[in-house]
Amino acid sequence: MYQLETQMSDSIKNEKTQKATIRQKTKYEFEKEQLVKDHEKKEAAHALEEETSRRNNLQYSLIFLGILLFFGLVLSLGFVKVSPTVTEGLIFFAFLLLFEFLLVLGNPYIQGSKGEPIYKLLLNAILAGAIFPAHAFFEKHLKKDLLNNNLTKLSTIVIFPN
Q1: Using an 8 Å Cβ cutoff, are 95 and 139 in contact?
Q2: How far apart are the C-alpha atoms of 47 and 44, rounded to whole Å?
Q3: pLDDT (tens digit, 9 = 90+) per residue, 12-39?
Q4: Which residues are CB-neighbours of 120 under 8 A, at least 6 positions away?
């Protein structure tokens, strides 16, 4: 009887051990699958983030190039006869584009400032205040050059008519 009890006890323990082993193996395989899925999700998210970043950088570069070309156009107004009102409008529009571009470019950093409206307004006001002196400088000098250029052309026409 003792031998039979020992044999039965070993058999029961062996079955419990086998069940526990199977449970552990199943749990391990499930966790392994979860880790692989999580890793694949992270890789996909990273690839998407990298693609988005590359696209954004390309767009930022093209926008900046466009703004530079527009500023070049505005600076070349001294060689073309244009009214002061049009010059003022183009200078204003150029700086407005520059301001908006800087807002778009700095938006992730501004959003990082807790996203509160007062911080956004303050940072936008600082940016506008930084751009204003450049706007005033360009407007003053381009108007001056434009008026001098128009007067020179006018005096040439009056003094030396064709």
Answers
A1: no
A2: 5
A3: 777 777 788 889 999 999 999 999 999 9
A4: 110, 113
